[in-house]
């Protein structure tokens, strides 16, 4: 697999898939309240418990998730390129992917840079998982399922 294919296809696809498709977890925090947390395969985003509307990010889990997404996408592209058909990346496709990935990164960084958000190296509390599911754009199953626990 050549480097051009690796950079021009894998990197923006990793960003797009990582931001748009993840997993939600409804959890009970030991000695705390219940919450909806996000991340796949590791939870990297949680509501901050010190104020409403704040989010806590766990850096080690976030990096591990991104690396796993990147490795998986490299593997899929490599297998498709080697065994199914030769992938040829056109400049229009590459430009579109990079623009879309750039917009998503800017949006996520704007949200993450709000002053009330917090960054930790890892989650320092235990949880009990009550339910889980997949999150994708325009999906509100996580909040609907969370509300079922509070009726």
Quick description:
The chain is α+β, with helices and mostly antiparallel strands and 151 residues long. The protein has four helices and six strands; from the N terminus they run H-E-E-E-E-H-H-E-E-H. It has helices spanning 3-20, 59-84, 91-112, 141-148; strands spanning 22-29, 34-38, 45-47, 55-58, 118-120, 127-135.
Secondary-structure blueprint of this entry?
Layout: H1 3-20, E1 22-29, E2 34-38, E3 45-47, E4 55-58, H2 59-84, H3 91-112, E5 118-120, E6 127-135, H4 141-148
Parallel strand pairs: 4-5
Antiparallel strand pairs: 1-2, 1-6, 3-4
Helix pairs in contact: 1-2, 1-3
Q: Can you give keywords for this protein?
A:
single chain; 151 residues; alpha+beta; three-stranded antiparallel sheet; three-stranded mixed sheet; 4 helices; 6 strands
């Amino acid at each position: 697999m050549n480097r051009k294919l690796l950079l021009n296809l894998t990197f923006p696809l990793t960003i797009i898939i990582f931001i748009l498709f993840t997993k939600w977890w409804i959890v009970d925090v030991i000695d705390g309240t219940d919450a909806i947390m996000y991340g796949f395969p590791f939870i990297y985003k949680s509501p901050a418990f010190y104020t409403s509307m704040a989010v806590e990010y766990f850096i080690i889990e976030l990096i591990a998730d991104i690396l796993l997404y990147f490795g998986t996408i490299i593997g899929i592209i490599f297998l498709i390129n080697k065994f199914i058909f030769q992938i040829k990346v056109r400049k229009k496709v590459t430009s579109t992917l990079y623009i879309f990935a750039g917009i998503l990164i800017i949006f996520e960084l704007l949200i993450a840079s709000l002053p009330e958000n917090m960054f930790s190296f890892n989650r320092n509390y235990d949880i009990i998982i009550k339910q889980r599911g997949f999150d994708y754009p325009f999906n509100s199953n996580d909040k609907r399922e969370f509300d079922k626990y509070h009726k």
